[in-house]
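Module 6 notes. Inverse folding takes a fixed backbone as the condition and produces residue identities as the prediction. Think of it as a translation problem where the source language is geometry and the target language is the twenty amino acids. Below is one complete input and output pair. Work through it position by position during the lab.
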C-alpha cells in the first residue's frame, strides 16, 4: 500500500482529468485519505457517487510514481502549490463557500495573506480610466495594500504596473495555468510579477485559457481581497462579475464615477446606483477599513519624483485626462512645434504622458 505526504497527494489528485472541485469534495465526504493509495473496495464505493470513468482514472493514475512525478515537475518549474491543508493558505480565500482546493503560485506566496484590494475594469479603457486606475493603484500600493487583478489587457495591466512602480505588492490571478502567459503581449509584465509579486491560478499548470475559466478566476480575485474597486467598466463588462462576487462574499465594492455620456462608465455608474461606494480618492477606500494598517513600502524604496524641465512642466500642465492635439499644445504653450516634439518625446520616455493616434497626447 503506497503512502505519501497528504498535501502533495491532494495536488496530484487535482491534476487528474475529470477531478474538479466537486469531485474532491465528494471524495473527502467519502472519507478519502490523500496520504495513501485507495483499496479496491474504496474505489468501488466511490463509483456510487462519482462517474465510473473518473474513478477508473484515479485508480490507474493516482500512484506513488505519479505523485512523485507531479511533485518534482512543480519544483523544477518553480511553481509552489498551496492547498487547503497548508498553513500558508490565504485566510480570506478560506472564508469562501467553495475555496479552491489547490492554488498554484509563482512568486511570493506570502502575498496571498497580505491586506489586498482587487482593482478591475475595462479591457479597453479610456485615457481617463487608465489614469484613475494608475493613480488609485499606485496610492493604495504606497499605503501598503496589495493590489490584486487579473493580468488582462487594459485596467488590469495598468493596476499591476502602477503597484510595481510604487515599489508595492501586487498579485495576478490567471484564467489559465500559472505557467501560461496570457495575454501574450504581457510577457514582460508577467516576468516582473513573478520576480516582484505573485502570479496565481487554481487550474493545473499548462491549462490554456478558455472563456469558462475567467468567471471562476474572478471569484478568487475578489476572494483574496477586502474589497473590489472597479475603475471603468461598460454595462456588460466582465469586471462587474468580480464586483458581484465581492458582494456575495460579504466584501466591499467601490466604483469610480464617470461621464454619464460614456459607454465605458455605464457599468461603474450602475454599481453606484446599486449601492457601491463612489470613490474620488484613496481616503474614500481607506476610511472603510480603519482597523487595517498594512506596512507601506520603506521610504528608501519609494520611487523618487521624476525630474522635468521648465518647458516640460509647462506642457504637463496643459495635458489632462482628455486627449489634446499637438497644434493645441503649440497654441497654448507658445512653444515652437519643433521644440514641443522634443519635450513630448522626453515626457514619454519618462512615462508621464502617452501619445494617441492623430498626434494627440494624454497624461498617464
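Target side of the pair, the amino acids:
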Amino acid at each position: 500500500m503506497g503512502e505519501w505526504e497528504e498535501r502533495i497527494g491532494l495536488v496530484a489528485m487535482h491534476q487528474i482529468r475529470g477531478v474538479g472541485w466537486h469531485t474532491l469534495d465528494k471524495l473527502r465526504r467519502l472519507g478519502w485519505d490523500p496520504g495513501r493509495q485507495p483499496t479496491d473496495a474504496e474505489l468501488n464505493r466511490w463509483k456510487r457517487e462519482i462517474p465510473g470513468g473518473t474513478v477508473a482514472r484515479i485508480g490507474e493514475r493516482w500512484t506513488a510514481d505519479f505523485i512523485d512525478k507531479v511533485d518534482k515537475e512543480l519544483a523544477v518549474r518553480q511553481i509552489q502549490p498551496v492547498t487547503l491543508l497548508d498553513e500558508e493558505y490565504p485566510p480570506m480565500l478560506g472564508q469562501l463557500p467553495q475555496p479552491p482546493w489547490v492554488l498554484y503560485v509563482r512568486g511570493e506566496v506570502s502575498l496571498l495573506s497580505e491586506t489586498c484590494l482587487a482593482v478591475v475594469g475595462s479591457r479597453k479603457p479610456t485615457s481617463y480610466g487608465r489614469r484613475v486606475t494608475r493613480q488609485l493603484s499606485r496610492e493604495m500600493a504606497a499605503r501598503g495594500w496589495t493590489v490584486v487583478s487579473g493580468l488582462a489587457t487594459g485596467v488590469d495591466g495598468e493596476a499591476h504596473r502602477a503597484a510595481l512602480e510604487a515599489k508595492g505588492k501586487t498579485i495576478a490571478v490567471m484564467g489559465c495555468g500559472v505557467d501560461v502567459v496570457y495575454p501574450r503581449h504581457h510577457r514582460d509584465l508577467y516576468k516582473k510579477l513573478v520576480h516582484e509579486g505573485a502570479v496565481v491560478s487554481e487550474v493545473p499548470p499548462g491549462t490554456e485559457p478558455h472563456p469558462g475559466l475567467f468567471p471562476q478566476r474572478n471569484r478568487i480575485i475578489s476572494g483574496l481581497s477586502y474589497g473590489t474597486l472597479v475603475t471603468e467598466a461598460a454595462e456588460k463588462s466582465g469586471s462587474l462579475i468580480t464586483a458581484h462576487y465581492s458582494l456575495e462574499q460579504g466584501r466591499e465594492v467601490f466604483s469610480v464615477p464617470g461621464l454619464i455620456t460614456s459607454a465605458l462608465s455605464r457599468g461603474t455608474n450602475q454599481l453606484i446606483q446599486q449601492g457601491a461606494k463612489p470613490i474620488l480618492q484613496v481616503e474614500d477606500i481607506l476610511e472603510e477599513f480603519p482597523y487595517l494598517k498594512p506596512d507601506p513600502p520603506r521610504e528608501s524604496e519609494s520611487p523618487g519624483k521624476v525630474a522635468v524641465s521648465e518647458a516640460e512642466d509647462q506642457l504637463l500642465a496643459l495635458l489632462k485626462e482628455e486627449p489634446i492635439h499637438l497644434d493645441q499644445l503649440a497654441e497654448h504653450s507658445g512653444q515652437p512645434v519643433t521644440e514641443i516634439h522634443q519635450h513630448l518625446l522626453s515626457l514619454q520616455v519618462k512615462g508621464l504622458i502617452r501619445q494617441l493616434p492623430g498626434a494627440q497626447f494624454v497624461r498617464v
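Reference fact for the lab report: Confidence is low (pLDDT under 50) at residues 300-304.
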